[in-house]
Amino acid sequence: MSWDTALPVLVLLSSLVPGLVIFFLREEQSRVRTALNLAGAVVKIGLVGIMLWGVYHERHYETRLPLLPGLDLILRADALAMLLTTLSAGLWLVTTIFAVGYLEGSPHRSRFFGFFSLCVTATMGIALAHNLLTFFVFYELLTLTTYPLVIHRGTPQALRAGRTYLVYTLAGSAVLLLGIVWLHRVAGPFSFTQGGALSHLGPQSHGTLLVIFALLIAGVGVKAALVPLHGWLPVAMVAPAPVSALLHAVAVVKAGAFGVVRVVYEVFGIRFAADLGVTTPLALLAALTIVYGSLRAVVQDDLKRRLAYSTVSQVSYIALGVATPGSISSIGGIVHLVHQGIMKITLFFCAGNLAETLGIHRVSEMNGVGRRMPWTMVAFTVAALGMIGVPPMAGFISKWYLGVGAVEAGQGWIIAVLAASSALNAAYFLPILHTAWFKHPTGEWKEEHPRGRFEADWRLLLPSLVTAALVIATGLFASTVMSPLTWAKLIAAREYQP
Amino acid sequence: MNAAVLYTLMGVGLFSIGLHGFLAQPHLLRKVLALNIMGSGVFAVLMATAWRGPQLPPDPVPHALVLTGIVVAVSATAFALALLRRIHTATGRASLPEDTAA
Amino acid sequence: MNAWIVWPVVVPLAAATLSVLAGQRMARVIIGSATVAIVGALAGLTLQVWQNGPQRHVIGGWEPPLGIQLYADGLSVVMLWMSTVVGALIGVYALGYFAHDSGTTGTAATGEHGDNSELFWPLWLFLWAALHALFLSADIFNLYVTLELLGLAGVALVNLAGGQLALVAGMRYLLASLLGSLAYFLGVAFLYATCGVLDVRMLSTRVSAHPAVWLAIAVMTLGLLLKTALFPLHFWLPPAHANAPAPVSALLSALVVKASFYLLLRLWFQVFSVVLPPVAGQVLGILGVLAILWGSVLALRQQRLKLLVAYSTVAQIGYLFVLFPLAGGTAWGAAAWSGGTFHALAHACAKAAMFMAAGTMMAALGHDHLHELAGMGQRLPLSMFAFALAGVSLMGLPPSGGFVAKWLLLDAALASGQWWWGAVLIVGGLLAAGYVFLVLRQAFAPLPADVRYRPVPRVMELAALSLALLAFLLGLMAIPPLTLLQIGAPFVGGLGTEALP
Amino acid sequence: MQGHPAANIPLSEGQPGGCSVRRLLALFSWALVLVLAWAALSLPSHSPGLVDFVHAELEHSGVVNPVTAVLLNFRSYDTLLEVGVLLLAVFGVWALPRERVWGAPLGAPVAGPVLHTFVRLLAPLMIVVGGYLLWIGAYAPGGAFQGGAVLAAMGVLVWLSDLAPLPRFSRWDMRMALLLGFATFLAVAGGVMVGGGRLLEYPRLWAGSVILLIETALTVSIACILILLFLGGVGEKRRATEGVREREAKQ
Amino acid sequence: MTGVGMFDVLLAVVLPVLAWWVVAGPDLFRSVVLFIVFGLLLALVWVRLRAPDVALAEAAIGAGLTGALLLDTLGRLRAEGWGTGDDQRGSDAGASGGEHPSV
Questions:
Q1: Does B89 touch chain E (CB under 8 A)?
Q2: Which of A432, C229, C355, E99 has the most CB atoms around its CB within 10 Å?
Q3: Could B91 and C172 be called an inter-chain contact, meaning their C-beta atoms sit closer than 8 Å?
């Protein structure tokens, strides 16, 4: 096994092994646990960095393992995969730091961090999967490893949320499996191919392919929280904040959106999909989700619920960009995969920090919190403005490309959707900012436990500042070589190659 | 009609009677009896296939099979009866709960 | 001596004899070496089959039709591995189980049980031998004897639990088992009367569309369905499997029901295939579907862990029978055949692990009421983990063995245009998730303070975990067994997607 | 577990009684009779059977009685497993609760002078008959199973008449007697393979003797097994109280 | 094809009748006794079919030993209070002390 074939496996192992070891640690061995976690995360970032450099220089990293007769498990680092692996690897490190601080002193931490690492492993697998079978294997692994995290607290409410989560995700994966097996029956074994792998199929199978497309999108749409399959996401808010951050920014939702990208671009191919006539319905569905999620977010008082509905809305930007024909919208959709992750994780870090430090769970309790925790709220503000699409933040780049792409494609209604969505984003984020910065504190905070020299435990504060900085950086330096935008352009260019 | 056909018919008759008794009778001892009668029915069918008329020697293979069958039957019967006695001692009944409930 | 084929039968029989004669301590040595010997012989046999195709062994040198022949093809070998590996790990588990059990008023018993647990070993060895004999025999009457051997050993093992429930369950099991054997025996008599041979291979060339053959097929199938506990003939299974001692439950659910299924497979596809109309397979398939639904729904309604697992067996048996309507066409027959048999394999590992894990929890708590298992994830994390991994296989999620089986069956269903069988597989998987998570969510519930808990031997947890891991990872090593299954299979050809141009 | 018997009753699964069910059952049985009879009448009048094969090889089998030849040579594997079934029945009875002790429980023999004398006279005769049946099996009707059954009947009679103490199967030699037949059979089955033969392939020249050896061992074991099966459950009530000590004191 | 004597016909008719009595007769004790008779007559059938080996085994094991086992079991059931649970109509052949608890 050469280095090039080993690398994708090593990327998985760098979180799998620490995860498995952590299960067997005793509860009080928190130093060993943290060390293992951080070591795994750093090693992973290093490995991903090497891979990133290699892929940029057109090296091929690929691992195969025969799984079924005629079907291999294939892990391969392509440009799209690198986008998600880099995002996940980076955010895993900051989330780990955040989680260590957040969960300090609470029970079952070995279990938590064990599943946490497995969850990241599954996400890496999803990113590197090079055919639908491999994608499905890790997609399911993700379901199974996130369930214990969702019900981590063990309260009746958490158990109920876990049940909802399972009902949605398992039903989704059942549909997905059906679609995958069927597609293999129709098309034979194939790998992800830029520009699509199905265009050789004649018109007699187009009817079947329509159904299969619907099945696949429904399957990945559950995790991507496309309306009406989004029901689990707000409920899953009972999970601890690091889990929410993971669900929304790094793993689950992202896996679903990533699946949409893979299915449209590399299974069907955007041109073939457009010929089939499936892109417009998908775009409509995404638009519906964007508006619906935003509308629901406006009326939520619970901060995490508001953020959850915001995710429902924002993730569909990706699907919208992907489903709109034209390379510019594609760039917007793909780059939003990264941008949404960075922005949303910042928001969740801040929400978790507020809850942990001051016991704040609702927007109405945030009066004047900007004075008490200015750094946290600065981070929050940066991310929120990014979400709204204020330049030069990351979100602006996404929306810009989406908008230009819509114009290019002659789909004016998308502009309207984007505008409405931005207005709604402002409608649910600006009041928070107003409350936090400009209102006076109503009295004592519910429970105040600052730890350390800063306004909050540094492990809770630092991650949000780092990611907030990234929100600005990805916007400001969008045109540099290693920026997400450059990668997105690369991917889109290959997809639209004649 | 020859002896083979006659005893085959008797065999299937015994099997049916046994099966009917097995299903209809709640008492476990009777179920065991019924199983034995079903077994005898199968033996009769097999033995009839061995019959090749009064002049020719019969086929010894079915005879051996039936001998084996008889020994298997007695083993199963002895075991079933021992189990039945334990159930009777433990529950005071010699039938299965769902049968007596009816 | 390269006749490896006989030793999987002879060795456990010899070990059973010796273990009765020897003392307790010697018995362990005997059983241990017997296990090693069986694994060795099986490895030899596998190599032979792999290299030279199906193996035959003419017992006593008397060629069929006069004598009896042993026959091993890929299917037999896979089944033998299943029973050997699962059986051996159950044996390891039983070491801990009975050590834990003796001297205390533990699990299932009324307090009067105890030293008859030493009978577990000879009975278990006899059961093992009976399974292996059944997987290797190529003579329909000899198969009848092995069926009886298997049935009696199974019932005797159930009764080891003592106690009223186990006795009654054992009796119900015994009666069902005997009735099934007798029906099979009647079929044998009719087949001999019509065809004049007992050898499976010769029979397959002589059966014709004749009333007596029809009848033989019908009664043999019914008898074997009763023994396999296919809905609606499953009534005896849940009480017997739930009330037996845990290692016995594992043996019965994982292996014993598979034996009669295996026999049915052989008869249908290798003896009667010429005379069976396709509609017959559809009937079995429909019963399988009903079993999946009925078993799952009842599993969801159980209050006791072991009953839940037992009803899950009723449901999982249903999957095996989805094979019958699908294994017909040329393009997808191989996928259905491999999928069905692979499911038997995966279910054996998963279900044994599940019963073992359930038994461990029961041994620790003294009961198995579902709603009082809260916090088990903290008390017995390994067992809970084993249960979860086994559950993943039952749900058919990757990378478990259950996933591979489901994929292949689904593939066959879609390929044959009978997508509704595939839909049932999917629904069944979701229902399985329902009852598995019913248990798993208890693991995360907070641990009540006042629960009495007895420590259990570590070996029990480890044995269950190894089987569960095997079930979970079986999908990653599916190629060798799937290739083996093709050797001597009625449907040869590319599997799954390879079948397409 | 014992505290919750209700939990065990499966939902709506039983054999409901009642008049209509019985009528249905009767209907089913009659239908069964008709179907079976139809199949039976359709059987070929001349079943081909294996009789020619048996007679062609009979001279190589080592015995003259074709049934014995089939039972102990041509299809000896069946018989081997069948002895296994017998043993399993004994183990099964032992595995039941209250029968845990290796050895039969003690019951109440029917002692009486007439029976005593009768059995004293009969017992030797039955041993002779049993032995004869065993030996004649090679040539004429008879064999290990029949001989063993006669010996077992003698054993039961002897016990019933209180002439001899109960067998105590905690003793190694008694277990040996129980397993002798099976062990011998199995040893021969595997032993002949040492020279490169097949399972249960007796050396042609020695076939008669080997069969006699197996049958002799089997007769002893079958007698023991049958006696044990008969005694298996006797005397459950007394055993708990005075049974054991009383009888041991007698000796 | 001849060879079907009156005796064969008689046996072939009597045995099912006996079997019916065994499974459905009113009294369990009588059923057991009839079962032994059934076994002996079956042995006669085997003799008629020129199978003395089987006849011998049937008489010794099928009728003799099984019969003894059945009688013994029946005795034990009786000794434990009530023996013939399904014989509600009262049994002439001595269900001694025949209390029948409600079933």
A1: yes
A2: C355
A3: no
Please answer yes or no on whether E32 and B51 come within 8 Å at the CB atom: no
| Interface test mutation site (partner C, options D50, D185, D199, D205, max chain C beta carbons within 10 A) | D199
Domain boundaries along the sequence of chain A: 284-498
Q: What angle do CA B57, B63, B68 make, to 5 degrees?
A: 165
* pTM for the full predicted model: 0.91
Q: Considering CB atoms only, which of C378, C399, C498 is closest to A69?
A: C498
Tell me: pLDDT of C176 over 90.
Answer: yes
What CATH number does residue B33 fall under? 1.10.287.3510
Tell me the β-bridge partners of C72. Answer: C55
Q: Which of chain B's residues have a Cβ under 8 Å away from the Cβ of E47?
A: none
Q: To probe the interface with D, which of E46, E56, E74 has the most D CB atoms within 10 Å?
A: E56
Q: Same domain, yes or no, for D43 and D59?
A: no
Would residue E1 count as lying in a domain?
A: no
**Residues D37, D97: one domain?**
no
Query: Any CB–CB contact under 8 A between E12 and chain D?
Result: no
Residue E59 maps to a domain = yes
Lowest mean pLDDT of A193-207, C44-58, C382-396, D10-24, name the range: D10-24
Whether residues D20 and D120 share a domain: the answer is: no
E49: in domain = yes
pLDDT 10s digits, A178-203:
999 999 988 888 899 888 888 888 88
With a pLDDT cut of 90, the percent of chain C lying above it is 75
**Least reliable range by pLDDT among A15-29, A215-229, C97-111, C453-467:** C97-111
With respect to residue D189, please indicate whether it lies within any of the assigned structural domains.
yes
Q: Does E24 touch chain D (CB under 8 A)?
A: no
CB contact under 8 A, B16 and D9: no
Which range among A385-389, B4-8, C79-83, D173-177 shows the weakest confidence by mean pLDDT? D173-177
User: Percent of chain C, pLDDT > 70?
Assistant: 94
Q: Give the minimum alpha-carbon distance from C43 to chain A in angstroms, rounded to a whole number.
A: 23
Q: Which residue has the higher pLDDT, A452 or A459?
A: A459
- Is C60 close to D198, i.e. CB distance below 8 A? yes
Q: Is residue E44 assigned to a domain? A: yes
Tell me the pLDDT band of E74, cut-offs 50, 70 and 90. confident
Cα distances from D221 to residues A361, C62, D174, D181, E48, in angstroms, run 80, 27, 10, 5, 31
Domain span including residue E32: 26-79
The total number of structural domains in chain B stands at: 1
Place of tokens 């749409």: A221
For residue D232, the model assigns a pLDDT of 67
Q: Taking CA atoms, what residue in B is nearest to D73?
A: B64
Residue of D nearest to E61 (CA): D149
B71 near D CB under 8 A: yes
Tell me the ipTM for this assembly: 0.90
Longest dimension (CA), chain E: 56
Burial of A215 (0-12, 13-18, 19+ CB in 10 A): buried
- Residues A212-253 pLDDT 10s: 999 999 999 999 999 899 999 999 888 889 898 888 888 899
Residue B65 with chain D: CB contacts under 8 Å:
75, 78
Bridge partners of A62, per DSSP, are A76
Tell me how far apart the alpha carbons of residues D217 and A213 are, in angstroms, rounded to a whole number: 72
Following DSSP, what letter does each residue of C212-236 receive, concatenated?
HHHHHHHHHHHHHHHHHT-TTS-TT
Residue D134 · residue D219 · CB < 8 Å? yes
Q: How many domains does chain E have?
A: 1
Say if B and A touch: at least 3 Cβ pairs within 8 Å. no
Average pLDDT for residues B61-72, to the nearest whole number? 95
- Checking if the pLDDT of E88 tops 90, the result is no
Name the residue among D240, D250, D251, D249 with its Cα closest to residue D106.
Answer: D240
Burial pattern C276-288, b for ≥16 Cβ within 10 A else e, equals beeebbeebbbbb
Which residue from C minimizes the CA distance to B38?
A: C182
Q: Give pLDDT, residue A194.
A: 84
